[in-house]
Amino acid sequence: MRALTAQSLLRAALPASLLWLAACAPAPIYKSTGTIAAAPFNVAETPERYANADVVWGGRIVSVRTLADRSEIEVLAYPLDGSQRPKAGDSGIGRFVAVMPGFVEPLNYPDGGLITVQGRLTGSRAGKVGEANYVFPLVGVGQSHVWSASEMNSGKNNVHFGVGLGVGIR
């Protein structure tokens, strides 16, 4: 019988460890049905190109407006991870307005909270961010999910690979 070398052990362990790491991440919350991956600023530049497109977008809640027949949530968009959680550590990729039918309780959509919405682009609207003019894509929301801190941290592994010396202070 042939002796196992370090190289053969590494070859055997690598696929298993990759499968283990992939199993740690939660599944996406919304099924992808031909959704577009265009960022809100791309849509704002050429809204006619994306008319009635389905999207799954997410980000940080900036504000909530409740109107007579709908509620509007302004969101600073971030890229989403494989579980459709906003990557809040990344740079924002534009803003959009999530339009929800009827009344939503603003306390259930707190300023600064992280949200993912699934819906359809229904147009765009000119507005302002501070004193700057801005075009907001409008998303008619079919489903939404506000992420709790524990959901944002679940599935994140604490395994790091590297060479060197590390010191951690807590």
Automatic annotation (TrEMBL):
Domain of life, per UniProt, equals Bacteria
PROSITE patterns on file = PROKAR_LIPOPROTEIN
Listed A to Z, the keywords are: Lipoprotein, Signal
Q: Where is the signal peptide?
A: 1-22
Extract the PANTHER family matched here: OUTER MEMBRANE PROTEIN SLP
Task: Provide the protein name.
Answer: Slp family lipoprotein
Which organism was this protein described from?
Answer: Dyella koreensis
